[in-house]
Structures are given as structure tokens and as C-alpha cells.
Amino acid sequence: MTDILIIGSGVIGLATAIALSQEGANVTIVERGTCGKGATWAAAGMLAPEAERLEGSLLEFGMRSRAMYPQWIANLMRLSGQDCGYWCCGIIAPVLSEGERLPLSQHSKYLDKVQSHRQQSGLGDSILGSLWLPEDAQVNNRKLAQALITAARSLSIRILEGVTVYEIARDRNRVTHLETSAGKLQSDRYVLATGAWTRSLMPLPVNPIKGQMLSVFDRDRKLQRVIYAPNCYIVPREDGTIVIGATVEDRGFAEGNTAAGLAQLLNNAISVYPAIADMPITETWWGFRPHAPNEIPILGASDYENLILATGHYRNGILFAPITAKLLTEFIVSGGTDPSSYF
Q: Domain segments of the chain: what residues?
């Protein structure tokens, strides 16, 4: 029997498994599909607590996690021997309306139109100014997923792919076992990190929000900043790929890209960075974000003394991964503060 069984192998489940293992825990991960191929694979990888306009304790949570990234990535690279595409490129957040420009013009990080174009050439004429956020960054989420998986395996973390959990069996205030497609699985403690699929196992307020995305290829590599506009984001990779996202659709688990969704993204992206119009489309895809009330993650203790919650990270699972793993590990291993008290 394993010490800790984690349900879900997205960035949160994998990061938590690695942190627990490095503290001496015997960890098993159960994944219904392919490891790291859910919302983690579909993301853009922005580390953008400021560009996302997070507020209050959520902003503090995001800023703390962003500050942890250099050391966290270094640990992953040491364990995996793989690059994660971590790039402190900064984010430029364009202002597109006069109504928005006036209040933001007093912000310490505000750039006027001329300064914005100096910070990133090729911006569209619709941009009246911007916020320049040099500490916001990005990571290549797909490289990150592969590094996390490799790191987990280097620590002898057991990963069970293609195993569906049908039920979290409970007796009074404890989880007794998991009923799965591979039979009963037992552990001392369990971590629920199932993202958008949380409601299939526990009655928690987590809903799937679909996001459509696409990528183009910039052979000239002139875009060197993430552009976080009000109606789209544009994320350049160092290899010339540009990721464009994302729609926000409350349509359950409706799969597939739509012409309307992709057209919306392309039109919005071209308006703020016109060179995209002539770039070839290289890929389209979609994913499901786990939305919780007020976009606040559901972390820490549950109604069952040996079940820990780690879900509902919505748009910021990759940003929040380092601090989530740290707080959960401290809570589980040494009886630290319940992470739910953070918010």
C-alpha cells in the first residue's frame, strides 16, 4: 500500500507528487487518460499574476508562486535533465479603449503609445498604450509536462495511466479505498487533483470552462514579448511558434474547435499584432479549465480526514503549481497550516 495516492496527473498532481516524494513519501498517481495531457497540455504557460489582474489574496498567491519559479524549474531540470522553456520575456498588456487608458495612465508600469511600440515593435494601431510587466513570464507547458513526468519517474513515483477512478469509497470520516478500472486501490492518504473532472468523484463546485486555441509560426521571430490583450493573448515561443488563446465557453465537455471560435481568436490577435495575418497556422486544439467560485483554488482539508483537495485552479494551474505543491506537502508531511486558510 502506498503512503499517498494522487488522483490526476496534471501539473498540480505531478508537482505535488514530486514535492511529497522529495520529502520521503511513497507516492502513486492514478490517471484516467494519458499523463499530463489534459488542461496542462492545452495551456499557454503564462506566469502572469499581474497581467491576469488577480486581486487580493489570489494576487499574493500568484506573486509568491511566480517568485518560486526559478528554483522550482532548476529542481525539475536537475531531476529530469530536460529544458522546460522557462522564459522571463515580460508581458505587455495593451490598452485598447480611451475609457481604460485614462485610469491606467496613472499606473507605475504604464507606457504610452510610443513607448509601447518601442517595447515591442509591430503592435497594431488600435493600441493606445499598455502596461509593461517585466516580471511576468512564461514556461513551455508541454515541455514542462514532459519534464514533470520524467522527474516523477526518476523519483520512482508510480504512475498508473489509463486507470479510471469510479468511486472514492468512504466510511464515516475516512476514505477507505478507490474503486477503479484496475480494481481496488488503497493508501494512507489521498489527494484529489482531478481538475475539470472533479465533480465526477466529489460534489465540489468545479465546472469545466472550454478554451479553444491555435498556434502560428513566426519565422522572423520578431515577437519577443507575451501580449496579453483584453480579448486574447499571444505567447511567442523561442522556436518561433506563437500560441494564441483562448475562448471562454461554459459548454460542459463539448469537444472540438469551431470556425467561430478560431475566427474570433485570429481576428482579435491580428488587431493587436497584425503580422500574424501572414503566418501559417500550425495547430488547433482545445482544453477544459477547472473553474471554482471566484476563481479561487480549492485546496487543503476535506470532509474526510485522509482526503486532501487540490483542484479548481482555473486559468492559473501552471502559475500556481509551485506554491500549491509546497503548501500541500507541508500540510501533509508536517501538519502545516491548511492551505485553504490562505484565501
A: 2-84+140-205+293-342, 91-133+207-291
